[in-house]
Amino acid sequence: MTCNLSLLESRVRQVDPQWTSVTTAWNDGKRGVDYGSLSCWGSNITDVTMGSDGGGAIPFVRPHNMDETVGITTSDKIVLHDGKTLHEYLRGLSMDDEKVTDAGFTSFATGVGDAPEPVLVRVQYAWVPLATGTTSRKVAPQHFSYQTIDPKQPANVIVTDTRCGTFLDHDGVGVKKLFAYDDAGAHWHVAEATSTAVGSGVSGATDAGVVMGLEGMTPHENVFLVVSMPRKQPPPAPGDVNRSLGGGFGGVYRSLAADDGVSSAARLSVDTEVAGVRERHGIAFERDASQQIWVTVMLFNTVQAAPHVGLQSDTTFTPAPDDVRHCVEEGKKIYSLCEHVTKLSCVKEALCKLTEEHMAVINKKLAMSEGSPPKRARIVPDENALAAFV
Fold first, then answer.
1. Predicted local confidence at residue 186, as pLDDT
2. Is 153 in contact with 233 (CB distance < 8 Å)?
């Protein structure tokens, strides 16, 4: 059971042309500038998809990937599920913390002092299709880091936080699922349908909701925070540069119908079944102070067939227009809680000059990766692009 992705994209753009629907989100830490134009490549590049135990595409609704909307705030304005601020949490995170040693780190230096850290914020929604007769689905965000080519040298250390707990992780060489962890091992997260309307978390709360995310948000059950801290890297080995990384990708989505589904804000929990053993690689972590901490505020919605619709296995359905509108409007309200809201191309701290060394690392990663996400198409800016839509 899947969403009709092209129809969802159309509905999102009707609400706000600056927002889109994608199955791969570009949650980059440092994007490159090439000959004065924003590139899709850079020195800290991450593709994010949503994994599930049943497979299939799970779409994101978010601002456009290329020149995404960015919120600017400070770490004391980000609240975790237990009421601590992100600043308090990161300042106290060290080798004395059981989560750090359990994750296999050999040293851990966040570099966070008494003063709050500036952080960059993105907001995106994962819209999880549910099969007929089910009320939940096992899910986990999946990160693919183009700069991680050695399991002991991840590009980013990652903190995730939901209403159920805080978990420490890091990039992997392949596609890395951001599971929940306990002493038994790794666990899927669970997105469950509720009676809470899409986008109602900011204006109304449920008894099980938790105040978390940006300061000023009201209780939610569906918030999933992803905090990416760039790790200081050794100098890249010399390598040949190949800039011909183009060749866009796309998908063909076939359906016999495109019925409007019934959507809700999800309730997030942790599955009790152990999904696997936690990987431990003996990582020494020192935060790269030349890069910013990113916080992705991810919110989960569910969608399933309306009760009156008799669906076949190859039929798709789509979040209804009103639900899409509520989703985008809530996302924009969350952005507005930041001190500043701008575009990626206006945040110099999130940009770098694209170099041959950056491209050499990316080429090496692509050459060694099997079953990796599709290569990003190289986009050539056109100063007359707007004229095409008059």
1. 97
2. yes
Which amino acid would we find at residue 346? C
For residue 89, how far is the Cα from the chain centroid?
Answer: 20
Phi-psi region of 334 (alpha: psi -120 to 50; beta: other; left: phi over 0): alpha
- What pTM value is reported for the model? 0.89
| Torsion sign across C-alpha atoms 105, 144, 355, 33 | negative
The CA–CA distances, whole Å, from 55 to 51, 52, 242, 256, 260 equal: 7, 5, 33, 21, 22
How far is Cα 344 from Cα 33, in angstroms, rounded to an integer?
11
Rounded CA-CA distance 39/203 in Å is 37
Average pLDDT over residues 354-361: 93
> Which two structure tokens, joined as six digits, stand for 380?
């050539």
Mean per-residue pLDDT, 264-271? 96
Q: Do 16 and 99 touch, CB atoms closer than 8 A?
A: no
Two structure tokens written together for 1: 């059971």
The sign of the torsion formed by the CA atoms of 80, 83, 88, 89 equals negative
Query: Tokens 């570009």 sit at which residue?
Result: 26
Nearest alpha carbon to residue 131 among 293, 312, 339: 312
Question: Does residue 28 surpass a pLDDT of 60?
Answer: yes
Using one digit for the tens of pLDDT, what is the confidence trace for 230-255? Answer: 999 887 555 443 333 433 323 222 23
Q: Are 302 and 221 in contact (CB under 8 A)?
A: no
- Distance in angstroms (rounded) separating the CA atoms of residues 64 and 19: 6
Element of type H or E holding 353: strand 351-353
H or E element that contains 37:
strand 37-44
- Mind listing the pLDDT tens digit for each residue in 294-342? 999 999 999 998 776 554 444 677 999 999 999 999 999 999 999 999 9
Q: How far apart are CA 267 and CA 164, in angstroms?
A: 10
- 225 burial (CB, 10 Å; 0-12 / 13-18 / 19+) is buried
User: What tokens does 30 get?
Assistant: 């440092």
